[in-house]
Each structure stands twice: as C-alpha cells, then as structure tokens.
Amino acid sequence: MSRLQEAARRIKRDALTVYFAARDPRTPLPVRLLALMIAAYAFSPIDLIPDFIPVLGYLDDLILLPLGILLVIRLTPEVVIADSRAKAQLAADRPVSPAAAVVIVLIWLLCAAGLGYWWLAA
C-alpha cells in the first residue's frame, strides 16, 4: 500500500511539474498548450472516464495521465523541467485549498455550458 501512495505522490508532483513547465516562457508553445491540458485534467475533479466504472474508471488515472505527463516532460527542455520540479516540490509541501477546487469545478462547468451553447446554436 505504501508503494501505491508513493506512486500517487509522484504523479501529483509530476503533474505540478507539468503545470509549472506550461507557465514557463522557455517551453515551446505547442508543448505549453499540451502541458496546460494535461495539468488541467490532472487537477480536475472531473474524469474522462468516471471512477465508478469497473476497470475502465481507473484507466485514465493509471495509464493516460502518466503517459501525458511523460510526453510533456520529454518534449520540454531539461532546464525548464529542473526549475519546474523545484517549484513543484515547494508547492507540494503547501496545504490544499478547497476554494481552488471550487474554482476549478466552476471553470469546467462554464466550459461545458459554452460547449453546449455552441453545439445547440450550430
């Protein structure tokens, strides 16, 4: 069980690294966009495949997310990754903010509403 907890912490730390790499101007623009999408998905409480679906529910958490993180890390310059990992380590030690979770949910709801409006208007 401790190995799973350590793996979860490592994925969270790597997702923070990807987030900080996306904000760094030294990261190429296409990689920044990909990194933003991966980080948004990693920290979003809404999953592509809901976790209550047997087997498939954890597929995105166990396979897709780590592959996306790995891709961004490989496409980002090493100096940016090193700086981003240092920032991620500092950020991981901070307490969690419930207000940030509410903001993320509101952003996803606004995006879904906008997409629904666009789809119905077309």
UniProtKB/TrEMBL annotation:
Q: Which InterPro entries does this chain map to?
A: DUF1232
Q: How does it sit in the membrane?
A: Multi-pass membrane protein
Q: Which residues constitute the signal peptide according to the record? A: none
Q: Where does it localize?
A: Endomembrane system
What do the Gene Ontology cellular component annotations say?
A: endomembrane system
Q: Which residues form the DUF1232 domain?
A: 32-67
Major site of localization recorded for this protein: membrane
Q: What is this protein called?
A: Uncharacterized membrane protein YkvA (DUF1232 family)
